[in-house]
């Protein structure tokens, strides 16, 4: 039996795709092993969002080649799509696939014969028009379900439209069918994922609201989370539906990117900070206990210290539960690369640290606010030194002594003790 190992970098979308592909290989008779183990085939699903992500991609390729110099190494995903010629030069690489060719991976590996040259299947970005449905299944209690791919926004800092193409999605019927499969496998929670999920159905005339209304009716799925949705696309109707639904959870991730309108304009974002604040306000008005997080970028070109202090003050004023902080990283061929007044690297990192400190404060406050509440917790399968963990409906991490009988069950728990070591509530015997 041949063995295969996956290493996935980047977003939940990548993880959904890797998990789906891994399942396809298992059906073909492959044994999936950990990436740190010796395998016959290694698949690296790459990310190109930051320079750090690309460095991790290169290191993963070298690690795979070191583990087994005779293995077939396939590199797929966003970095492959944009930097295939660079990847060709890395020792050990056999196959390179862009984002349009991922569905072909299993057949390509099955029929592959080792050769001295790299087999490059990356197509021109203009050909990225197909939608590759996928979902994670066997590797986690929760499932990540891909509902959309690509993006039409072309924000000045972002390479994703150039690596994943224009926005496209499956039909409501297809997504519902995937959810029904996951329900039949015993999954209780689905995380809806994509590049810009609020754009769902743009070509077909279907809408994201219609999609979640349909998913709400799928029997067997008890919980849905919306992974990330643009502030201009999370409408009043979507918020109100989630508030009324028993299965759509009070947990939202809304990209802010900058807390200063001047910088938002330079980024070519499709909203101002006032709209962002309105969206957060409406969510918390309808769902007072909701966990609302935001992405922010530190050190964008043209961001003065005054601009940053203004942004920081705005972010501090928002009733968010956490931030996901990114240090600005130049992406080749994006408009931001040629913008004047670049922020020095050291200053970017300093600002990132300041924003991360705000995030830590907000998360601590959110946990303290929920102390003494009774929450529903879905227990995950991982055993961490005799402990198991799960998440409440509003995304509080909860831990207890490992009990295999609780895996993939939902229990009601009173949250009283916050443990800083585990950064979670801990249930005591």
What does this structure look like?
The structure is a single chain. The N and C termini lie far apart (44 Å). The protein is globular. A hairpin with a 4-residue loop joins strand 16 and strand 17 (397-401). The chain is built from twelve helices and 20 strands. It has helices spanning 12-27, 51-67, 78-88, 105-110, 160-164, 172-184, 208-215, 236-244, 261-267, 273-286, 305-317, 345-369, and strands at 3-8, 31-32, 41-46, 72-77, 95-97, 119-120, 143-146, 148-149, 168-169, 189-193, 223-226, 248-253, 291-298, 322-327, 374-379, 387-392, 397-401, 410-414, 418-419, 424-426. Among the domains are: 3-123, 3-Layer(aba) Sandwich (Rossmann fold); 374-426. Helix 8 packs parallel to helix 10 and helix 11 runs parallel beside helix 12 (345-369). It has 429 residues and is an alpha/beta fold.
Topology:
Blueprint: E1 3-8, H1 12-27, E2 31-32, E3 41-46, H2 51-67, E4 72-77, H3 78-88, E5 95-97, H4 105-110, E6 119-120, E7 143-146, E8 148-149, H5 160-164, E9 168-169, H6 172-184, E10 189-193, H7 208-215, E11 223-226, H8 236-244, E12 248-253, H9 261-267, H10 273-286, E13 291-298, H11 305-317, E14 322-327, H12 345-369, E15 374-379, E16 387-392, E17 397-401, E18 410-414, E19 418-419, E20 424-426
Parallel strand pairs: 1-2, 1-3, 3-4, 4-5, 5-6, 7-10, 10-11, 11-12, 12-13, 13-14, 17-20
Antiparallel strand pairs: 8-9, 15-16, 15-18, 16-17, 19-20
Helix pairs in contact: 6-7, 8-10, 11-12
């Amino acid at each position: 039996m041949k063995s295969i190992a996956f290493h996935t970098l980047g977003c939940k979308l990548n993880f959904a795709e890797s998990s789906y592909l891994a399942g396809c290989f298992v059906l073909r008779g492959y044994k999936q092993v950990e990436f740190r183990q010796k395998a016959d085939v290694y698949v690296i699903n790459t990310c190109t969002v930051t320079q750090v992500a690309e460095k991790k991609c290169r290191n993963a390729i070298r690690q795979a080649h070191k583990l087994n110099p005779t293995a077939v190494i396939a590199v797929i995903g966003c970095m492959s799509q944009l930097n295939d010629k660079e990847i060709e030069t890395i020792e050990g690489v056999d196959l390179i696939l862009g984002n349009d060719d991922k569905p072909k991976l299993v057949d390509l590996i099955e029929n592959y014969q080792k050769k001295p040259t790299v087999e490059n299947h990356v197509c021109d970005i203009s050909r990225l028009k197909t939608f590759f449905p996928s979902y994670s299944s066997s590797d986690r209690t929760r499932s990540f379900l891909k509902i959309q791919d690509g993006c039409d926004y072309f924000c000045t800092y972002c390479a994703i439209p150039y690596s994943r193409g224009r926005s496209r999605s499956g039909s409501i019927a297809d997504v519902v069918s995937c959810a029904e499969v996951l329900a039949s496998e015993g999954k209780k929670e689905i995380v809806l994922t994509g590049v810009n999920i609020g754009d769902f159905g743009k070509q077909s005339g279907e809408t994201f609201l219609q999609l979640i209304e349909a998913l709400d009716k799928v029997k067997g799925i008890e919980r849905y989370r919306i992974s990330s949705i643009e502030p201009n696309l999370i409408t009043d109707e979507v918020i109100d539906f989630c508030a009324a639904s028993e299965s759509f959870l009070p947990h939202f991730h809304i990209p802010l990117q900058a807390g200063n309108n001047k910088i938002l304009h330079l980024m070519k974002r499709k909203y101002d900070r006032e709209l962002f604040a309105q969206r957060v306000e409406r969510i918390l008005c309808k769902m007072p206990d909701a966990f609302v997080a935001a992405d922010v970028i530190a050190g964008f070109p043209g961001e003065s210290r005054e601009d940053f202090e203004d942004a920081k003050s705005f972010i501090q004023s928002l009733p968010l539960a956490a931030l996901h902080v990114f240090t600005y990283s130049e992406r080749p061929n994006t408009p931001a690369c040629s913008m004047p007044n670049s922020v020095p690297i050291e200053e970017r990192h300093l600002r990132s640290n300041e924003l991360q400190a705000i995030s830590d404060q907000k998360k601590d406050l959110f946990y303290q606010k929920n102390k003494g509440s009774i929450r529903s917790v879905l227990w995950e399968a991982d055993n961490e030194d005799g402990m198991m963990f799960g998440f409440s409906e509003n995304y509080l991490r909860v831990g207890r002594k490992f009990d295999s009988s609780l895996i993939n069950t939902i229990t009601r728990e009173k949250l009283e003790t916050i443990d800083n070591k585990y950064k979670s509530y801990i249930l005591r015997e």
